Amino acid sequence: MAPKFRDLDQRTPLLLDCNNNKNGQDADAGRVTNGNIVHIGEHDRKHSALEPRYGTMLVDPVASRNLEHPTTNLDTLMHMLNGNLGTGILAMPDAFKNAGLYVGFFGTLAMGVICTHCMHLLVRCSHELCRRYGRPSLSYAEVGYCALDSGPTWAQPLATSFRRLINTFLIVMQLGLCCVYYLFVAVNLRELLEYLGVHVSILTILGYLLVPLVLMNMVRSLKLLTPTSLTASVLAIAGLAIAFLFLLQDLPHSTSVQPVSSWSTLPLYFGTVMYAFEGIGVVLPLENNMANPSDFIAWNGVLNTGMTVVVCLYSAVGFYGYLKYGEQAQGSVTLNLPNDHLLAQLVRLLMAVAVLASYALQFYVPMTIITPIVTKHFRHRPCAEYVLRLVTVLLTFVLAAIIPNLGTFISLVGAVSTSTLALVFPPLINLLTQWPHANRPGQPWIMLKDALIIAFGACGFFFGTAKSLATIFGASHGVADDIGSF
Where are the transmembrane segments (predicted)? Predict the structure, then answer.
């Protein structure tokens, strides 16, 4: 039975730069005939989605995006690194402690490959559905909506609910990351100030940080955030390079640590690593704003290049951090560095500034979801958006101030949101997107592969959530006692 195609619900906005899409979100795909563009009717759209007619050239809505401020490949790579090199990388030694040296190392490589593959699936499905619906770009939630809307008949009524579910997960995950980033910066700056002999409270530092955060998050264009992403990436790599000076000194033999840890702590390892791979929420916004979107998923493109750097850094920090500090590895590698050493304080400063600069990119994603929903009720929408941004930054300030043990709560949010957004939803969307082509050669193997990834992500979701809840309620003492855990 052919899939039923409906007009895409336009109430949910595209996850695009708010001032960046000039060709309109409601534009239909066109067919080029004798130099003229003829809009595809509903009947033709059904036919072209299932059996593309190569005799008549179709205008590719993805390749013909008209962006006012497109990002270059280098811009996108900096954002990609910035979106993944957050606080999670500092927790990798603690993650390896919960898995063992070799299980942690090879497990991180395997999970990095799987997460990168799922990112590819998400972008490829977005391109396919953009062409199917004649849209220049789609957000994560709209990709989920279109996949169900053009999928099996039984799935079509669930399309709107699925879109709302994805948006909810994205908002919870990204605002949770913003809260962790905020508190992480404050804690590290407090330690630095105490080293300099200045004693201030966390709340005071949070208050001082509020001013630059508000100013930075008034920037609405992803293109204009490139300098902050470049700064964050350079500082993070510099901080990690200095940290390696400590990690690589006087390394013990690999037999001094466990090669395989207890099965009971593997869910904590899974949750920490999945929290570290936090870039799934920014993949489509970055691709949607590229001047050359085809370069994003090429074999040597931005996605593979960025994720290769990220996975190598994660594996190296986890491997050498756990080998150096063993069972004394704390939730953040900066906590294991000597407090009386100037270079150790420099690492804390560099990482604090890098995380502070990364806040704006993580903040960008929920704003593109929430802003159209809220501002449509106001006459002066730009002013309403600025007020909304201010209120949302204040919300993260309040949460960071009243929940000092936010790390434990975020571990639960990460287990629930990141595992589903990074491992469960992309292969599920791919299955639904490929449903009209179920008779293609090799399709059963693709379905089996996607099903195995979904099962893996679902197991991580259930076991990671259960272990996080057990930790929160005191079943596992001493894990993630403060924000240093992330």
Answer: 99-123, 165-184, 196-216, 228-248, 268-286, 298-322, 342-365, 386-403, 409-433, 445-463
